[in-house]
């Protein structure tokens, strides 16, 4: 059994400002349009951006830690979201390929597959490769394992 990490840091990186809101459908790989109470921010997601927030769908709430780049655009050095507690997950993984559903959040990924829609929990330890974030309609492959709560838990996600 693996223990899924549930720790997420909420400390703002030095020189950044925290803004919280919901992504809009205009978001794409490496670009976050974050609708906040003060308006919509256009934010470039830096290559080294850390954190637990990578689901850019309108059903999700994220906090972006932003700074003004030398290109006069807002950049995110960190993005956080709330993740579910993973608990114990099996070390045996299974791969699923499909597209991200628009109602996905940082806690639950809804994946359209050829066999139907899957509900897969996202934990603090879930890793993502070949993409900076997930957007509605994006093709991905998920390596998942069954957790002690009998849900599938994403161990890793790869963009296509």
Chart the SSEs and their pairings.
Elements: E1 2-4, E2 17-23, E3 31-36, E4 39-50, E5 55-56, E6 62-68, E7 74-80, E8 87-89, E9 94-100, E10 108-113, E11 116-129, E12 134-135, E13 139-146, E14 152-159
Parallel strand pairs: 4-7, 5-12, 11-14
Antiparallel strand pairs: 1-8, 2-3, 2-6, 3-4, 6-7, 9-10, 9-13, 10-11, 13-14
**Individual helix count:** 0
By CATH, the superfamily of the largest domain comes out as: Nucleic acid-binding proteins
**Measured distance between first and last alpha carbons:** 28 Å
Question: How many β-strands, per DSSP?
Answer: 14
Chain-averaged pLDDT: 88
Q: Which architecture of the largest domain per CATH?
A: Beta Barrel
**Radius of gyration based on Cα positions:** 15 Å
Question: Main sheet, how many strands, which sense, barrel?
Answer: 5 strands, mixed, barrel
What quaternary form is this? single chain
Strand content: over 45%
Per CATH, the class of the largest domain reads Mainly Beta
CATH topology of the largest domain: OB fold (Dihydrolipoamide Acetyltransferase, E2P)
* Category from helices, strands and their pairing: mainly beta
Helix-strand string: EEEEEEEEEEEEEE
Shape: globular
Count of all domains: 2
Report the uncertain regions. 1-9
Order of strands in the sheet with the most strands?
A: 2-3-4-7-6
Estimate percent helicity: under 10%
């Amino acid at each position: 059994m693996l223990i899924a990490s549930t720790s997420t840091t909420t400390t703002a990186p030095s020189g950044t400002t925290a803004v919280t809101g919901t992504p809009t459908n205009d978001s794409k790989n490496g670009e976050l349009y974050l609708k906040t109470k003060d308006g919509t921010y256009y934010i470039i997601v830096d290559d080294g951006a850390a954190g637990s927030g990578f689901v850019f769908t309108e059903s999700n709430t994220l906090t972006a830690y932003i700074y003004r780049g030398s290109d006069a655009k807002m950049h995110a050095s960190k993005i956080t979201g709330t993740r579910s507690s993973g608990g114990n997950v099996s070390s045996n993984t299974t791969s699923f390929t499909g597209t991200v559903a628009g109602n996905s959040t940082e806690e639950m990924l809804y994946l359209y597959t050829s066999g139907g829609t899957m509900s897969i929990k996202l934990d603090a330890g879930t890793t993502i490769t070949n993409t900076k974030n997930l957007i509605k309609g994006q093709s991905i492959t998920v390596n998942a394992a069954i957790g002690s709560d009998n849900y599938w838990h994403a161990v890793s996600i790869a963009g296509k």
